[in-house]
Amino acid sequence: MPRRSTAKSIVIPPPTMGWNTKDPISNMGEEYAIDCLNCWSDGATVDLRKGNTVFAGNSTTQNYYDVFGLPLQNGTTKILAVNGSQALYDITSGGVSSIDLSAGGTLLIDDLARAVVFRNKIFFKGSNSIVGSGTDRDVYHWDGVSASITASGFVGPGGDDKALSSVQVYKSRLYFTGLDLSIWYGGIDSITGTLTQFNFESIFKNGGYLLFAGGVQKQGDLDQQYFAAISNQGEILLYQGDAPHLSTWSLVGHYYIAPPVGLNSFFYWGSNLVIITRQGILLLSDVLNSSENLVFLSNKINNFILLELASNENSHGVSGVFFATENMLMFNLSDNIISNLLVMNTNTGSWWVWTMGGQISPPRVINQRVYAAENTNARILRLWDGDVDKTMPITSIVNQARTMRLRPAYNYLGDRSSVKQFTEARPILKESEGLTLTIDADVDYADTTPTSTVTDTADLEYKAYRPRCGLTGIGKAVSIRIEDSVTTKRRSIQAIEILWNEGDIV
Description:
With about 500 residues, this protein is mainly beta.
């Protein structure tokens, strides 16, 4: 005899562990989301990401392509931007910028430039030394005070510094990678002069050229700084010592990983080095200390990352940054100009994807804020700032809507056998400027567009709501999905109560 239908309810938490493209949707933990867009979690709630404001603009038609920070000895930081004419601008004061540091755009710094701060000067090296001829990019530096930048005048390969690539600092010396398996380094504290070559060609087994050469640390050995040289083939050489020409210099490790994606696929997370490879995102400390298979930081979304990188042969714009104050790692997986960011919570390991509303350069952290150049509108954005995208006008900026999409893992509500008739969802959330929420039920792995909208405009304060949202659908598992467009709101999903009538076991 069929059993009588029984009304039930349960309160489930939001998917605070973020995006999961690895586990099958039929057996995914409720802490994950099948899909999430413009969301973020601190581990307790799932919130709409903060907005992006406009920090600086350009009075000409030239777009900006990159942004950098230069900390000075007096405790202040200069903010610099590269525009479409490859000119360098001081935009520290924000607003409409006009301080050209490169004498009318004669400086050859392009949109893939790399920079490093050394002795309170910022050094720039363009990218074409690898992807182009290797003869059209000098090394320049700026001290934060002078009216224009200075050509560093290093004497390196070919008698000048054009045939160099990326630049790093190790034990008070600048180190440049060449176009092969050589490094070129200067004297202690030197910002000009003759560079010394050190060639790794006889040690690297798989050939190629260097992508990274600089200081690193091993886990559990925080007082010891090492030097790592990493090739485009995924070989890593680890040295200890003060400089290659000194007797203290010695090779202490030789490791192999998947090929790094490009010149900018390395960045520091505290004392650790993050590497974006063709197999996923990993930590150098895990490579140096692991005798077994590596566990990638991006394990839960690795298949998505591999698809994103598959078509990029020379992806020197692929990059990342550590945003310490908000516990974020931000990743750009496109070749320089991006419209999406992948973001990882460094406390929980959860992954999230954000749309930026337009094309931006890889983000940079300056003064504990995140900046990026918006390539199509001659503006510098400050990310994760305020509750709306683009609110500070330079010329004629309008607020842009953010699409929030949250599709939690399918939940069997404690019973994988019984059919359920879903009747109602009662989300527990906080929202500003009144409530406007579009929510619905995906049943048994369906993927539909939600159409049930609830509103409450009586109170514009940021406050808690618990609306009653009618559901339809019969099945064993359900995902209560939210998908709507938000412009100036704050929103935080606290939990969701689901009500259903239990039917027969089938």
